[in-house]
Amino acid sequence: MDRASSTVELDDRLDRVGYDVGLRMLELLSYRERVMRRKPEVLDMLRFIHSTAWPHMFGKAADDLQQAAAAEDEYMISDYDLLANRFISVPKSYGAFNPGALVAGVVRGMLDGAGFPARVSAHYVEHRDRPKPITTILIKFEPTVMQRQAHIENLKKG
Amino acid sequence: MSIYSMYVISKSGGLIYNKDFADIAKVDTNDALRLASIWHSLHAIAGQLSPVPGCTGIELLEAETFNLHCFQTLTGTKFLLVVEPNAPYIPAVLQRIYELYADYVLKNPFYEVEQVIKCELWDEALEALVRRQGAGPGGLVMGGSGAAASMYG
């Protein structure tokens, strides 16, 4: 915190650290999969992150994977108790800063490495069943990704 | 309710955290700071005065209306617990408080060591622990908060 002059910069730094980790983790996890095949579809990649990357990092699958209701290019992966945030009490002066920015960076690295450029960020979200806010990783894909996805779907329809 | 209040003293003798769990135990900030430094010095002196070798300091102070338990960690941080005279399992409670300290204070990158403890998760976990310990019909009244940031002595 001493080396960053603002929460935005702190966010960026954590994101950059996570990004490098994500690139390498994608390679490692893809190698360890039985079938080594690229995943051109958005949902397949997200499922990979939700069910393969998360257990590798945290010992259990992510708690939720949703598409945003409002925007087609936005997806959300939620963790009710993100390990990175479990012991951290963010001082009020940091506002809405979420230390999960590190994990968001990892996700961004994995997506970018697989050919899905996106903007990824971590947010605290109130959840009605949970006493504490959960952490949601918000993924907003670049237009190129959505165009490619639409093209794939068209091809599938034949 | 069996636990009246809790104090955490840093290894240099300054009060870094205090919390009162009962109305009768309310102590104002200056008195709390004085209590911490006096205790720190007494604790050190007792270690020297002891006729038995291997004494590390005062562990228990028994008075008519309360007991004061002190747990010193290997790093010199002291956890003081002021409890009613017949409170059970206090050493175990102190161990558990030390665990919570290691988790929610020391693993917090925003916490500077030896400074006053201002961690929300620590406060919440502590309250939950004390509530479980001394669940009485009246419930617990939370008083006190982090000590003023002045080091004593």
Distance between the termini of chain A: 53 Å
Segments of chain B where pLDDT lies below 50 for 5+ residues? 136-153
* Averaged pLDDT of chain A: 90
Q: Note the total helix count of chain A.
A: 4
Oligomer: heterodimer
Strand percentage of chain B: 15-25%
**How do the strands of the widest beta sheet of chain B line up side by side?**
2-1-5-4-3
The geometry of chain B reads as globular
What is the molecular shape of chain A?
globular
Helicity range of chain A: 40-55%
Rg on CA atoms of chain B, Å: 15 Å
Largest sheet of chain B: 5 strands, antiparallel
Based on secondary structure, the structural category of chain B is alpha+beta
Secondary-structure-derived class of chain A: alpha+beta
Identify the most extensive interface between protein chains: A-B, 8 and 11 residues
Secondary structure tally: strands of chain A:
4
Largest sheet of chain A: 4 strands, antiparallel
Number of DSSP strands of chain B?
Answer: 5
User: Topology as H/E string of chain A?
Assistant: HHEEHEEH
Q: Compute the average pLDDT of chain B.
A: 84
Topology (elements, then pairings):
The complex is a heterodimer of chains A (158) and B (153).
Chain A: H1 7-32, H2 42-58, E1 64-67, E2 74-79, H3 101-113, E3 118-125, E4 134-141, H4 143-157
Antiparallel strand pairs in A: 1-2, 2-4, 3-4
Chain B: E1 3-9, E2 15-20, H1 29-49, E3 60-62, E4 67-72, E5 78-83, H2 90-105, H3 120-133
Antiparallel strand pairs in B: 1-2, 1-5, 3-4, 4-5
Description:
The complex is a heterodimer of chains A (158) and B (153). Chain A has 158 residues and is α+β, with helices and mostly antiparallel strands. Chain A contains four helices and four strands. Chain A has a four-stranded antiparallel β-sheet with strand order 1-2-4-3. Chain A is globular and about 55 Å long. The model of chain A has no long low-confidence stretch (mean pLDDT 90). Chain B is of the alpha+beta class and 153 residues long. Chain B contains three helices and five strands; from the N terminus they run ββαβββαα. Chain B has helices at residues 29-49, 90-105, 120-133; strands spanning 3-9, 15-20, 60-62, 67-72, 78-83. Chain B has a five-stranded antiparallel β-sheet with strand order 2-1-5-4-3. In chain B, strand 4 (67-72) and strand 5 (78-83) form a beta hairpin. The longest helix of chain B has 21 residues, at 29-49. Residues 136-153 of chain B have low confidence and may be disordered. The A-B interface holds A 1, 87-91, 94, 99 and B 103-104, 107-110, 118-122.
